[in-house]
Amino acid sequence: MAEEKKLFKVKIDNITVEVEPGTTILNAARTIGGEVVPPAMCYYSKLQGSGGKCRTCLVKVTKGSEADPRPMPKLVASCRTTVMDGMEVANITSPEVLDARKGVVEFLLINHPLDCPVCDQAGECDLQDLSYEHGVSGTRYEFKRRTFEKEDIGEHIKLHMTRCILCYRCVFTADQLTNKRHHGILKRGDASEISTYMRASLDHTNFIGNVIDVCPVGALTDRTARFKNRVWFLKPVDAHRECSDPKCCGKVALWMRGDEIFRVTARKDKYGEVEGFICDTCRFEKKDIKDWIVEGPRKISRHSVITAGHYVGVHKPQETVMKVMDGRSPRLLMDIHSVSEVNMPQVDLSQIEGPAHSTDFPTKKGDQ
Amino acid sequence: MGRKLLLDKAHIEGIRYFDVYRKNGGYAAAEKALKSMSPDQVTEEVKKSGLRGRGGAGFPTGLKWSFLAKPEGVPRYLVCNADESEPGTFKDRYLMEFLPHLLIEGLLISSYALGANTTYIYIRGEYAWIPDILEAAIAEAHKNGFLGKNILGTGFDLEIYVQRGAGAYICGEETALIESLEGKRGNPRIKPPFPAVKGLYQCPTVVNNVETLAAIVPIINIGGDEYVKYGTGKSTGTKLISACGNLNKPGVYEIEMNISVEEFIYSDEYCGGIPNGKRLKACIPGGSSVPIVPANLLLTTAKGEKRMMTYESLNDGGFATGTMMGSGGFIVLDEDQCVVRHTLSLARFYHHESCGQCSPCREGTGWMEKVLKNIEHGKGKMSDIDLLWDIQRKIEGNTICPLGDAAAWPVAAAIRHFRDEFEWHVLNPDEAQRRNFGLAHYADPLPVAAAV
Ligand SMILES: Cc1cc2nc3c(=O)[nH]c(=O)nc-3n(C[C@H](O)[C@H](O)[C@H](O)COP(=O)(O)O)c2cc1C
Ligand code: SF4
Ligand code: SF4
Ligand code: FES
């Protein structure tokens, strides 16, 4: 007869749960769900050794355990602190935690470029969500922000180091999913950067593309999809295929507009983590709908921006132009896409210094 | 004359070499420990001595040793932390340069007590010439049967290796040191697990400071009970203090922890006072990471007692009015020094040395430096002082390793005690470029605290 496992009782923000010994406070909170779950920018349940770095998941342990009820002297990283029986934790009920978290968000943002308007991650960016939910609107930072040159690391991946929050997820991914890691952190302190040694490319393995999915910000983006579309204009569709690589789960989200697949990613859960890792062939090369068996539209629960325009059962406002114009349809003076090249593949917004200007986009007629 | 336990023979010509060291009573403690004591008895003796770690935190060494996990069949390691990179601290260097055999004897006894057969000395890379001294001494000890296989016929084996760091202060933090020793990037580990359980190569490991390990020798020689008779209260034994700044006689001093701070600064036996008849303005008594205090609080505690060179007395008053013994890097500032500028140099140091793993320290240290630079160069605003306070508050306690705290404390203490000087810089930006704030009221006698 199997012996019954002893479960630990933990109280998080006055809600009691029972979890297995060895569970972290963060994962215990995730079994409760909702607001009491601390935000996690660096921890990734599928990557061993991740977590502990960003400090957004700090919580206060108000009672250590039944056996030793003393509170812990400092705030602890909930992603790396395991529960004890009888532990009591304060997250959103502790002003101290909320204050510290505000501080962490501020620290993460002082050197961030805030270039969301031209960033492909916008709309599905953990840092955007974090700042929206836990940060303040203004900044007290008055200095020049840290910048790096953009880098193509390999054929498919763009590294935009300026946006990186140094969560180390991509390093763990490369370590644990590919046969050989070729990138890591160079230098130290706020000069640290993700890079490849001697600018080597990352094309050597079939799983490196996953670094794009684990990156919480827009520091690693898919070069086959960069600047093609905003995520909220795309419709995520669950699909799968028989992939010949046994390590690839073959289950993906296709980001579509009409019949066109703009981007293939792994499927992400509500904490922004992938359900299963996928190979580079599925990600970068299968951009034809015929490659895939479509399962249906993907439910997006957390990243509300993406769901914009994809409401279920909504009533669209009635088109009134025809009525106003006595039944005539309006005559378009121009189609913006025939005039501007801003959405054309040959335009690389990242090559443009500073804010884009109309002169950066010559019109078709070549009058400029 | 204060009694000495570590440097008592430092003046002897050629003490660096085995023969001279041995002739002057060297390796007697090792013989005593290995031949007549069990490892547990050695640990017991260290516990009795009340020795506290000399690397900065002051954690009782015997207790630390007793935490070491001892699973069957798993090697254990002793690592000697010789990374000494804290600004103001240069005592370990002195020990290693002049008394390498004292350290090796200490390592031998400690390894025996801990059951470690491999021991590493991780030494600061900038101490480029010292590994040669240590390696020569190790070779001599080998030749004379104090290292290697079956030492003194007791069946105990020990090898000591010297590993040079590559110039990072953070590699003095024990888990970063272990990572670096393993050949990885020197990022501090997230604890738990602690090194006592999973340290070097995931094996139980003790990391101790050079001076701590050297102090094991006199403890075994005279016995823990006798060692306690040196010093005061929980500050037993002697401590090396590296004194620098505005002093007539800067240098490394071994003090018995029963003298006052005033005596240490002004007596001719120690630092011999402040040059050119200048007056004392402020002091950082324990290396750059501990809070700076103004002269009046340095010499007397808020309770009006004489401040002594002991762990407890320096800490008296906590962060509000006290400071810490730290690693014993005693930095003295006279009336001509600018606290703002001084704080800026420390902030620049911590910014430069942050490993960059955790966001508060990576981003906060640089931010503090930039704000301080503005204030120092006459571009500061009044609100910057509160901003600095808030930044340090948000770093402190929220980071992976204590470097974050170490970066926050000097800024906090400078603002706490020298706020007027910061404000003067903001209000008189031009004048502040030309002259210093001076002594002001920082040496005025403290109002005697009214009994509550
Ligand atoms: C940033 C940082 C730097 C440190 N540098 C040193 C050092 O250079 N030498 C040292 O002995 N301890 C240093 N320490 C303290 C060590 O982590 C550790 O506490 C010490 O080696 C333990 O030895 P002890 O118990 O003998 O004092 C440092 C700690 C931190 C956080
Ligand atoms: S590139 Fe992305 S995943 Fe990698 S450390 Fe930076 S933020 Fe994290
Ligand atoms: S506190 Fe600073 S030095 Fe320590 S782990 Fe964090 S970033 Fe690195
Ligand atoms: S998620 Fe816990 S520290 Fe980053």
SSE blueprint and pairings:
The complex is a heterodimer of chains A (368) and B (452).
Chain A: E1 8-12, E2 15-19, H1 25-32, E3 58-63, E4 76-77, E5 87-90, H2 95-110, H3 126-134, E6 151-153, E7 157-159, H4 169-177, E8 183-186, E9 193-196, H5 210-214, E10 220-222, E11 235-240, E12 251-257, E13 260-266, H6 280-285, E14 293-297, H7 304-307, H8 321-324, H9 336-339
Helix pairs in contact in A: 2-3
Chain B: H1 18-23, H2 28-36, H3 39-49, H4 61-66, E1 77-82, H5 91-98, H6 100-114, E2 118-123, H7 130-143, E3 148-151, E4 156-164, H8 174-181, E5 205-209, H9 210-222, H10 224-228, E6 231-232, E7 235-236, E8 238-245, E9 251-256, H11 261-266, E10 280-284, E11 293-294, H12 295-299, H13 311-315, H14 318-321, E12 329-334, H15 339-353, H16 359-376, H17 382-395, H18 403-427, H19 429-434
Strand order of the largest sheet of chain B: 3-4-2-1-5
Tally of separate domains of chain B: 3
Percent helix among the residues of chain B? 40-55%
According to CATH, what is the class of the largest domain in chain A? Alpha Beta
Query: Helix content range of the residues of chain A, please?
Result: 10-25%
Name the average pLDDT of chain A. Answer: 87
| Greatest contact between two chains | A-B, 34 and 29 residues
Rg of chain B to the nearest angstrom?
Answer: 22 Å
What's the CATH topology name of the largest domain in chain B? Rossmann fold
The computed structural class of chain A is alpha+beta
Number of beta-strand segments of chain A: 14
The hetero compounds bound to this protein are:
flavin mononucleotide, iron/sulfur cluster, FE2/S2 (inorganic) cluster
Between the first and last Cα atoms of chain A, what is the distance in angstroms? 82 Å
- Name the beta content range of chain B: 5-15%
First-to-last CA distance of chain B: 40 Å
- What kind of sheet is the major sheet of chain B? 5 strands, mixed
Named at the architecture level, the CATH assignment of the largest domain in chain B is 3-Layer(aba) Sandwich
Instruction: Give the helices and strands of chain A as they follow along the chain.
Output: EEHEEEHHEEHEEHEEEEHEHHH
Question: What is the residue-averaged pLDDT of chain B?
Answer: 95
Order of strands in the sheet with most strands of chain A: 2-1-5-3-4
